[in-house]
Each structure stands twice: as structure tokens, then as C-alpha cells.
Amino acid sequence: MHSHSFALAKNKVQRLLFLPGSVWNGWGGRSQSQRRGIRSCRSPLYAFTTHIQDRMAKRIQARRLEGVDENIWVEFVSLAAQYKTVNLGQGFPDFPPPRYVREAFSKAITGEQTLLNQYTRAFGHPPLVKALAQFFGPLFGKELDPLSNVMVSVGAYGALFCSFQALVDEGDEVIIIEPFFDSYEPMTLMAGGRCVFVSLRPTSAGDGKPPSSGDWRLDPAELEAKINKNTKMLVLNTPNNPLGKVFTKEELEEIANICIKYDLICISDEVYEWLVYDGNQHVRIASLPGMWDRTITIGSAGKTFSATGWKVGWAFGPDSLLKHLRTVHQNSIYHCATAAQEAVAQGFLKELERQGKPDCYFLQLRDELQKKRDRLYHCLTEVGMTPLISQGSYFMIADVSRFKSQVPPPTDPNIPYDNYFTKWMMKHKQLAAIPVSAFYSAPHKKQFENYIRFCFVKEDATLKAAEKILQKWSSESPGPQD
Ligand code: IK2
After folding, report:
1. From ligand 1's centre to the CA of 155, what distance in Å?
2. What are the CA-CA distances from residue 143 to residues 98, 265, 292, 353 (Å)?
3. What structural domains does the chain harbor?
4. 442 FRET partner, CA 20 to 30 A, in 40, 59, 115, 138?
5. 338-354 vs 99-110: helix axis angle to the nearest 10?
6. pLDDT tens by residue, 116-142
7. How far is the CA of 49 from the centre of ligand 1 (A)?
8. What is the rounded distance in angstroms from the CA atom of residue 127 to the CA atom of residue 133?
9. What is the distance in A from the centroid of ligand 1 to the CA of 182?
10. pLDDT by residue (tens digit) across 78-96?
11. Kindly report the CA angle at 260 between 258 and 264, in degrees rounded to 5?
12. How far is CA 144 from CA 29, 65, 454, in A?
């Protein structure tokens, strides 16, 4: 083509497609092989295609998805696998669920009751909602109606999603206590709401005691100051992921009084309810006076029975709130796998018989995990990582400052240091963890960027492999005190 007509044609296409000049840059200056290399990411054709794809994606994507496209689990689960790490990252056990629930699952699929392979009731398989009502009623100090006070969904994720979709409207404000399980923020945004964050802040442990997640506290005055006429809901997570903080009854009473005073709905995510250590008590905020009618309590069979892949979760609450969750659920998820629900129902019936006895799975798991927590705590302390004693959950956070000198400085100042450090550790030390900044809102991500989160719901062999990596690394790292 003549160079003048090429320039005109190029100009026309560029204007028609709103292409920036940079897409064409270098067209004239590149070698023939570069021009032909349509796969090269520097080729103008690649840039052209990418630009068109970006434009299309922007036009197609619903506005409520803006800013929620990145996800820590998608990114870090993939990196943990890519670098073949010893995985103390995502929170799942690497040991099997108890035998009797696994057997119940396979019997549900292969047994005589072939209908267990088919659809069941939309809001929860009848034997499961019945077992949940029977098991949890006394814990809430209430008789629960299995049909109207319990809803089963696809994991706690499904129950949370239905809660936000059902109860948050355009312009509503949702108070989130941070650090927080990351999904609360995108779920609020996807429902059209606005997130308002209130931070747990470390206070001094006192008496020379080692720092604990219990030292992180909420200032009720700060919480109250964030409430206005648009505030509709407060999200609580106890035991908290990632800190492992277990809110005390007194702390929950302060939060409950504020919810009642300002007529707020409370979403209480209690998926780690059985994993509470050192004699601490898990208190259900819905069981406090005046709270049942305004609280949705979320639970997870994944965490309760060490079967995170089964994706069975639930919501408890008054019919006045749950009926709206059911509307979302029936029009989106409908129900989760019948056989998994049947197995979880069998699990709760068994645990009902064992409640309070030494063979109760929940007590056994708790005691087992307390030992694992202590083991990880000692290892992290020994190598100089300054962990925070976790009062509950599967997780422990630790300050990694001592190891900074062993890691080349980051080149991008915008990425929180813990994110950079954790990726470097996965790639170069084959040890996976999760950066604590993932549990903070954007303006606060850099506040605790020397902390990373380790998961200890792992076989002893996995913990031992992690210890070996850390001990070797530590012996190579002259800390500031050395
Ligand atoms: N709520 C909390 C507080 C959770 O931690 C989870 C599971 N998160 O695990 C990933 C991690 O932090 O490493 C959920 C809800 C979701 O639970 P489910 O698996 O039942 O959907």
C-alpha cells in the first residue's frame, strides 16, 4: 500500500475504534519477523486485539462488577500450586473428614435411596435443616423451626451472598470490622452498597504476656461515630479470619447494644465456631438479648467437618430476615448437592449423641488444632517471626520484619510489602502463606504490611516440612539482633 493511503486508512480505523496512538507505535520501526509474529505481545496486532478486547469487556461488564475482579484466593492458590509449595496458605485441612461422614456421603450416592442423587428441597434438604435446628436450637437458647429459621446454601459463601443480595440496597452502608474475610467487600459492592470500615487495633498485652489476637480491640465510640441514616448492616466475624480473635461476651454486648440502638441488621459469620482455644468461649451474638430478630448467623460444614470441598453452609435467623434470603436463593442457587447435605445431616445426628463427650468430633478437632497452633507458634517464635497467639480459627498471623534483609527490596512501592514478601517466599522458599493486607480495605492495606497469615489445619508432616524451610532460612538470615 502507498504510504500516504496507508496513513489515511490507519487514521480512519484508529478514529473508528477510538484507538490510542500507542497501539500503532513502532509499526514502521519493527522488523518483518516482529510484524509477522502475531503472538508477540509487543506486536501492533497484539496491542490492537488487546485494546478491542478491553473495550468490549468494559462495554459488556455490568457496572456493579467494577473493582471486584481481582481475588486473593484465585491468585494465591494458583501460585501455591505453580511453585509446588508446602501449603500453609488457603484455609483447608490436608487431612480427611471423619470417616463416618465420608461413609454417609458415599452411601448417599451408591445406596438404596437413589433419590438422594436428585433434587431436594430448595432451602435445605429436610433431614439437614431438621438436624441443624435440633443441634443449634439449644445453643441459641431458642426452639428453631427447621423450615423457616434455617437455610442451607452452597457453603458459607452462598449464605453470605444471599444475605448481602437480599438485604443491602443501592446506597445502603455496611459496617465491616477489619481485618475481615475478603469476600464481604465485593459482596457489599455487588449489592450496590457502600462499605464503611472500622478497625480492630492492637493494644498492649500488659504483664509481659506474649501478644495475642485478643489484644486487638474495637473502639465502640469509633464504631458509633461511623453510623448514619444510611447504615443498614454490620458484619461481624468471630472467631476472626485472619487474626484468630474470639470476641468476648462483653465485646459482643457492646456491639449488640449499638445494633439495637441504631436498628442495624447483624451478619455474624461464625464458621470457626468450634475452633476456640485455651478455654476461650465462642459466644453467638444472636443469643444475646434483643439480637435474634436482627441477626443472621452463618456456618459452614466445610469448617465444621473438615470438608471444605463439599460446599455446604447455612444461615440461621428469624423468618422475617430469612424469607428474603430464600427469595435470592431460589432464583440463583436453588440448592446445593443433596448427597453432601445428607452426609452433613448424618454428621450432626452423630454429634448430637456425642455432645460434650470425649469422642465428640468438634472437641477432638479443637484439641488437635490447639496442639498444631502451639507447634507453629513455637516454630515461628524460634525463627524470629513474632507471631500473635491465635485464640481461635485455623490461622495465625506473624510479623516477618526480621526476614526483610534476606529478601531483595520490592520494585513497585504501590504493592503492600506483605504481598510482595509472600510471593517471593512462595517462589524462592516454596512455602505458601497469605498476605494480611488481603484482609484490609484499600486505604488501610499498608498498615500491617509486615504481617503474613499462616494456616495450621495441616498434617504434622506438612507442619514439619514448613518448620524445616523456616529453620534453614533463619539460619541463613542474620537478624537485626545477630
Ligand atoms: N467465612 C469465613 C470467615 C471464611 O474463612 C470462609 C472460608 N475461607 O477460607 C479461605 C481462607 O481464608 O483461607 C468462608 C466464610 C467461606 O466458607 P465456605 O467454604 O463454607 O464457603
Report:
1. 8
2. 28, 21, 12, 19
3. 3-60 (no CATH), 71-95+360-475 (3.90.1150.10), 99-353 (3.40.640.10)
4. 59
5. 140
6. 999 999 999 999 999 999 999 999 999
7. 37
8. 10
9. 9
10. 999 999 999 999 999 999 9
11. 85
12. 74, 37, 37
CB atoms within 10 A of CB 212: 18
Q: Ligand 1 atom closest to Cα of 241?
A: 3
CA of 158 to the centre of ligand 1 (A): 11
| Nearest atom (ligand 1) to Cα of 301 | 20
CA distance 211 to 219: 19
What's the CA-to-centroid distance between 474 and ligand 1, angstroms? 31
In ligand 1, which atom is closest to the CA atom of 237?
A: 3
Residues having CB within 6 Å of any atom of ligand 1: 90-91, 155-157, 181, 237, 241, 269, 271, 300, 302, 308, 313
pLDDT tens, residue by residue, 21-53: 444 443 433 444 444 443 455 677 777 777 777
Model confidence band, residue 59 (pLDDT cutoffs 50, 70, 90)? confident
Give the pLDDT score at 237.
98
Q: Read off the C-alpha cell for 454.
A: 499462616
Closest CA to ligand 1's atom 5: 241
Which helix (H) or strand (E) element contains residue 398? strand 395-399
Q: Are 311 and 339 in contact (CB under 8 A)?
A: no
